[in-house]
Amino acid sequence: MVILFLTVTLSYVNAQLSSPQEHVSLPAEYASNPGTDSVFIFNRPVYNSTMTIPLKATSADLTPGWNFVWSVYDMTTLTYSIIPKADTGTSSTIDTISVSSGYQVIITKGSISDTFRICILLNDFYVMITNKDDYGEVMYYDRDCQSVTLKSDTVVFPLWYPEPGTDNRIHINNKYAFDWEADNEQSEAPRGGFIGGVDNPPYKDTWYTVTVTDNFKLSRSDSIFCPAIKSKPSLGTPEYVTLNDPVEYPGKLYKYYYDTTDVLENRSAPGKYRFDFSGSENAVWYKIKFGDGQMYEAESDSDKIVHEYQLPGKYTATLITQSPAPFGCIDSSQVENVIELAVANFELPNVFSPNGDGNNDVAKLYIDNNVFRSNDVSVFIIELTIFNRIGKKVHEYAGNIRDWEGWDGNIMGSNRQAPDGVYFYCLTRYFYGYPEGSSEMSYLKDEDRGFIHLYRE
User: Which pLDDT score is estimated for 3?
Assistant: First the structure.
């Protein structure tokens, strides 16, 4: 509501009727010469509340000696009936007006006489949401996993005023605007007007409120409660698990591999990712589809799930959640193109110094430099043979690279140290990748040959 102080100038110069109440002023529009007749519209502060309106008539010249006679319009007799109130002085006030009607004041002084009329209308209406159950909640049949329907209605009191001397009623057109809102930002605000709707049901308990405002800025509201219906899956960005993670890679061998920087280009298959869906809300069941044909189901979001991708490529992970009964809504969210594992880039150092001094400035591929080791675990199976300069084997291994303990510089696993010098290796590796000119992944075999320089000093 807008609080105004309204002053209406009447036909006699400087004569006034005023009221310090909440209202809107309109000129009377009946045909029988309304002159300066006005219509005052007052908004009730609370629905159906008692409201007393004062009206004050002020003389033209603000000098004593004016007589004021008040009367109220009678729709039965179509005439004005005298109110038992007669004042003399510069002004006169009626402070007991509590109903809509037409009012008249006759101001006289000596031979001067003038009549002024005004209609008082009390504006009020009631708004209610009609699809509440006994607990103030949205009716069960008006909510499901797809939508929530909200229904409202108003009880209005027509605004009209009489045309003096006739039984005509002049109706004032009043329009009503409906505005819906939710009490939290996480819930979608309802659309629509008289009937509201939510296309995305809430995953949190939510109060929906409708506020109806008319042309005269009178507002009324009503609210309804909707318990959480859907679930909100939250997967977040999967965390790449580096090889120095002591939980996922507890064996001492993994410390020799260097992908500890979380850089996309350094990641290669197989690779592990940690998934955290604890940010999900109102869910009692969870399923993660990892995008590689594997999935995981749980009834709790308390654990962080680790999944290992075996092949290089881009993957889209999807989290599916289900809300509690009775609705059991299925919802999902996706994380796209954040899991990308490169094709293997197998490398061997060409120099190592297994002397146990902790220093190797040429190829920093391991922490303890008493072993010869690759920096890539994207290859599962290797076959490796190392020869001395006369062609005698000094080291060989065949199997999973993750089980290879490297070459410690001793001859064929004995305690005899291989002397300083140049050694020749033959390496066969088996891995998944893309053949040249093909976009289809295949299980590939590749062979490498090269030299290793062993220095102990």
Answer: 29
Rounded to whole angstroms, how far apart are CA atoms 69 and 117? 12
Residues 211-269: tens digit of each pLDDT? 999 999 999 999 999 999 999 999 888 888 887 788 887 765 665 565 555 566 667 77
Residues 449 and 366 in one domain: yes
pLDDT tens track for 333-361 = 888 766 777 777 777 778 877 776 655 43
Task: Considering only residues 5 and 104, tell me which one the structure prediction assigns the higher pLDDT.
Answer: 104
Considering only CA atoms, which of 174, 179, 175 is closest in space to residue 150? 179
CA dist 7 and 11 (Å) reads 13
Spatial CA neighbour of 21 closest among 75, 93, 106, 107: 93
- In which residue are the tokens 């001067």 written? 112
Q: Is the pTM of this model over 0.85?
A: no
Peptide bond into 20 cis (omega under 30): no
Q: Which domain holds residue 442?
A: 351-454
Return the ∠ at Cα 156 (arms to 153 and 158), rounded to 5°: 150
φ, ψ at 26 (rounded to 5°)? -130, 145
Q: Where are the beta strands (DSSP E) in 183-312?
A: 191-192, 195-198, 206-214, 219-226, 239-241, 271-275, 285-289, 295-298, 305-309
Q: What is the CATH number of the domain that holds 295?
A: 2.60.40.10
Question: For the chain, what's the residue count?
Answer: 457
